[in-house]
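Morning. Coffee machine broken again, so started the prediction first thing and wrote up yesterday's gels while waiting. Chain of 399 residues, entered below exactly as on the submission form.
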Amino acid sequence: MEIIKSDGLSIPIKSWCRDIEAVAMAQAENLARHVALRHHVALMPDCHCGIGMPIGGVIAAKDAVIPAAVGVDIGCGMIAVETDVDADKLAEMRFRREIHSRIKEFIPLGEGQPHKSAQTWEGFEEYLDAKDSNSELITKLDRHNLGTLGGGNHFIEIQKSDSDKVWIMIHSGSRNLGKRIEELYQQKAMQLCERFYTPLANSDLAFLPIQEKEGHDYFRDMKFALKYAFENRQRMMRVCKEVLAEFIPEVNFLREVNIHHNYAAFEEHFGETLCIHRKGATSAKLDEIGIIPGSMGTASYIVRGLGNRDSFMSCSHGAGRKMSRTAACNNLTVAECDEAMHGIVCDRWQTVRRYGKHKKTIDLSEAPQAYKDIEEVITAESDLVTPLVRLTPLAVIKG
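Came back before lunch.
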């Protein structure tokens, strides 16, 4: 960990990230000048540019919440389950392909791909029955999206541990619900900061005072999105378990971990209650079990937290991008990306129309080469977590 101090900063920046990109550092410096922040800005080893705040950043606010410092995918996180199945049972690529295809029959993948029927969940009614809830928050789409993967960097993986046991891992969040919540309260935060003439280095860092109604309402709706995201991952994991049991009836499912990496929470740090924002960062309190995924085609880790005070008891949420999506599509080749996925069951790279181009482009934005080296990331945070289990992919499903 390196302490970075620069002229004009109100609080220091503490970084576990080597070679921080210039835009991400500029965002960190904006945070270090923020009127509501305390102690320091912590940058995890997977840090890279985000909207307003770097992804892989942790900050502590006093009596305030910054919607952009949680982000649009509220509650995005990981779930992983260990099985007692020996990995050699999945040695045949054809057998893995059958499991891969079967999972895809039951879990909608990609953006704009909801379930055909509305999903029932008591969490919807619990939220709506609360006396101060926002009856307009929950939409038809939210009821159809529950139990769906989404797109981008979200994934389902069948993995094997270094001790040759099969694991299942899923990365997903609150889908469209979290995005709408962030956009609603970002506008409210900007309006409040304008009303009170609050100086900001970047309007994306507008904040909501906790004592104001808007701050209270954000926390209420953010917590609902966290519950939704947690349930979303559990439902998909339940499907994956059922499919694996269909192919391997003798399977037993052992420990399970389900965590968020985009959220805010009130915690005690440095002798006071602070609103800790983890944007692309995971809680790593002492002995807390966490998940740090790599990229598609590389290793992931189950870890135990060390409770490091300087990181606000946090760690990275993954490998972190080293190429933007545009740069990956423009600079990588299908051949080298195929080679990186050798021996792993996965679908071919999709052809999409994006990045402002009229012609279609091969989407290589999630290829392993677009991400940092997960082994280097884990090494850089050896004072934040202890690795417990190393997992490598056998089959990958992307949105």
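The chain has nine helices and 19 strands. Going to sketch it on the whiteboard this afternoon.
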